[in-house]
Structure formats: C-alpha cells, structure tokens
Amino acid sequence: MQINELLLYFLATVVFSFLIGLEVRAYLSKFHENDSKIFLGTIRTYTFLGIIGFILYKLESDNFTLYLAGFLSFTILYSLLFYKLLEDKKSSILLYLVAIIVYSFAPLINLFPFWLSSLIFVVTIFLLNAKNKFLKFKININIYELETLSKIILLTAVVLPLLPQDKTIPYLGISLYKIWLTVVVISSISYFSYLLQKYIFPSKGILLTGILGGLYSSTATTVVLSKKSQSLENSDMFTASIISATLMMYLRITVIAALFNMEVFKILVYPFLIFSLICIVITFVYYKKASNGLANIELTDSNPLELGTAFIFAFLFIVTMIITSFVVDSYGTTGLNILSMIIGFTDIDPFILSLLAGNYNIDISSVASAIIIATGSNNILKAVYTFWFAKRKAISSFVLLTTLGVLTIMVGLIL
What is the residue-wise DSSP string for 222-241? Predict the structure, then answer.
C-alpha cells in the first residue's frame, strides 16, 4: 500500500473519531449536565479508541485476531463501568454503542468505499444531535399499518427475488416476476402518498388534498372531493383541487412509463408534460380566485398497501392483459383504442401497466396511444363524477375535465 493512501485512511479515522467525541461531549453537556461524573469519556477517549482500532487492524488484518482482542478488552472495561452505572440506576448503553462505531472506523475505511464510513459518521452525529427532536416527536401510528408494511417488505425483499424472471406465462408472454414487480411499484407509489397525507400533512388544505390524493388515485380523490364540496364557500378552491389531482395523474403515469417502458415514455412525455402545464396554470388561476384556501377535507383513512388490495391489483392486471391480448390479436389497433376508451371509465392503472409490461403484436406508438386515450376517457369519467356529486359547484370542473379528456383522447388518436 502506498504511504499516502495509508496516511489518508489514518487521518480519516482520527478525524471521524475526534468529531464524534466532540459531539458526545456536547451531548453530555446538554442532556446530562447534572448527572454524576461517571461516564465513558469524551473527545480524547473516542479519538484514542479510533487510533487503537486502526493500529490493531493494521497489525493483523488477515483474520482480525488483534482487532477482536481489542474489542473484547474494551467491552470488559465498559462492563465494569456499566456495573457502576447500574448502581446509580443508569442503564443506557448509548455511549458504548457510539464507541463501537468509532472502533469500527478502521476496517470500514480500509475495506469499503469511503462513502460508507462517511455516511455512518454523518448518521451518528445526526442521531446524537437529534435527541430533542425525538423527544418532541409524537405520532399516532396504527399498529396494523406496520404489520402490513412488514408483510409487503417480505413479499418485496424475499418473494420477489425468488420469482422466475425468464420463464413467461403462456399466452401472456410475461413472467411472474414482472407481474409482481408492477404490483410492488404501483403499491409503493400509493403508500408513499398515503403516508404523506396521514403523517406528514395531517392538517392539510383542500388543494394539498388534491395533490397528494392524485398521487394515489385521481379518480378516488375526485369522488371524495366532490362529495365534500358542499362544505366549501365557493367552487374555485374545489376546482383547483380537482384539477391538481388530475395533474398528478399525468405526472404519475409519466413516471410509471419511465420505469417500465422507456420507449413508450419517450412518446408520452411531451403530450403529458403539456397537459401537466395546462393543469398547473388552471390550478394556479382558480387557487388565486378562491376566497377560502384553508378548508380541510380528510380522505378516508385506508391503507392502500394492504395485502388484499395488492392481490386484487395483481388479479386485475392479469385479467386486463388477457383481455388486451385478445382484443389486439382479434381487432388490432382499432380494437385496442376502443378498449382504451372503455377501460378509462374504470381503474386505469392495471390496464396501463399491462400495456407497459406486456408483449403484444402492436408497435410502441399504438401502446402509447392506448394509454393516452385511456387517460382521456378517465378524465371524462371524473367530470361525470364531479357533476353527479358536486352539482352546482361542479360546472367549472366538469367543463375543464371534459375538455382535458377530449383533448387527451384526440392526441391519442392522432398518435
């Protein structure tokens, strides 16, 4: 090893150890100023611990014998200290855990990319400095949501890698891996929106409700907002929120296309960005016109990442692929366009993902056209919902959504 590289590793170990020791001293001064003076040590102790770890690792770096001996010796010394702390009714092992991190910098810096040890250093400093934030942080988490999330992580991190990627299902031309991958992606987007709505912005205004709800489902959000519209003083804020949900639909579909089919994305991105800009302008105009921008509307507190919902989506995905494949084989592009208009009046996510992930006897432009047409007809469906549920306050929303729907369908037919 070159001397300059060895010196760099040593200096990094010393600097990280010293700064963490400095942060430990600040931590003790801030949160344990009046405690007894029995403690592990601060700046010099942590710096020397990092240096000793570096020396012992370098002296015998093949099987870590000396390094492990040093770790055991330090743990025994801390055990004696911890016994004394227990007599003073102090049971925290935080400083010991921080010391272990400091001691581990030597092998981390030598064996792994430098960004890893840097990230560990930054996270350690952040956690030491964030005690007040954690003490003030109060959140009402539904335990069933954590159970659901753990199941989804299991299905994503364990089951998904085990599914065959090469073996395709007869007639569908798609693997089980890709089917479940589509479920994971769309569910993750929905769950992210759900978490934002419930925990990050619990007291959100109606405009933010439309934006966050549109990430999950612009159709469902439109229905909820339309039903709750009678609580608003005028229709301008309602219109702004409805259009913002549709804006997020355009952006969400664009992102999904980029994830699953880059060729389709290249065709979709320009018209969808144009429609997104139109939605932004409309939302801004009506938001400025609104007299009451602070009204709150709560969406239904339902977890979109429940396993039942995921399996239903997978089932709809497969059924949609079967129907789409039959229509394409029997009626070609014309039949697909008609199917797109019809499915636009239902849940379009399974259909769009089936087009992006499937293997049909049509060209890429026909796939993009079908997605655009389905999006347009879905806008018309939302226009009907606003007129049905919001009645007199839905005139502007009905006209705008219908116009967006017709224009989107026209673009899809032209392509």
Answer: HHHHHHHGGGSSSSHHHHHH
Nearest to 284 by CA among 222, 221, 236, 227: 236
* Mean pLDDT for the stretch of residues 197-211: 69
| Averaged pLDDT score across all residues of the chain | 81
**In the numeric block, which tokens belong to residue 147?**
């159970």
Burial of 196 (0-12, 13-18, 19+ CB in 10 A): middle
Neighbour-count burial for 8-20, b at 16+ CB within 10 Å, e otherwise = ebbebbbebbbbb
Q: Are 272 and 253 in contact (CB under 8 A)?
A: yes
Q: Which residues pair with 168 in a beta bridge?
A: 175
Q: Which residues, including other chains, have CB under 8 Å from residue 261's CB and lie 6 or more apart? A: 356, 357, 364, 367
Asked if 211 contacts 219 with a C-beta cutoff of 8 angstroms, the reply is no
* pLDDT band of 35, cuts 50, 70, 90: low
Give, to the nearest 10 degrees, the angle between helix 218-228 and helix 206-216: 150
Half-sphere exposure of 60 (CA within 13 A, CB side): 9
Range 269-273 average pLDDT: 94
Say if pTM beats, i.e. exceeds, 0.90.
Answer: no
Mean pLDDT of 33-58: 80
**Contact residues for 321 (Cβ-Cβ < 8 A; gap 6+):** 172, 174, 354, 358
The SS3 call for residue 296 is: coil
What six digits make up the tokens of 81? 């200290």
Cβ neighbours of residue 252 closer than 8 Å, sequence gap 6 or more: 189, 214, 215
The single residue listed with the structure tokens 């710096």 is 47
Distance CA 87, CA 171 (A): 72
SS3 label, residue 3: helix
**Cβ-based neighbours of 204, under 8 Å, separated by 6 or more:** 197, 212, 296
Q: What are phi and psi of 173, to 5 degrees?
A: 70, 30
- Of 82-96, 134-148, 165-179, 192-206, which range is least confident? 134-148
Q: Are 290 and 229 in contact (CB under 8 A)?
A: no
pLDDT tens readout for residues 121-162: 998 888 887 766 665 555 556 666 666 677 667 767 777 787
Shortest CA distance to 181 belongs to which of 163, 198, 201?
Answer: 163
Lowest mean pLDDT among 7-16, 71-80, 231-240: 231-240
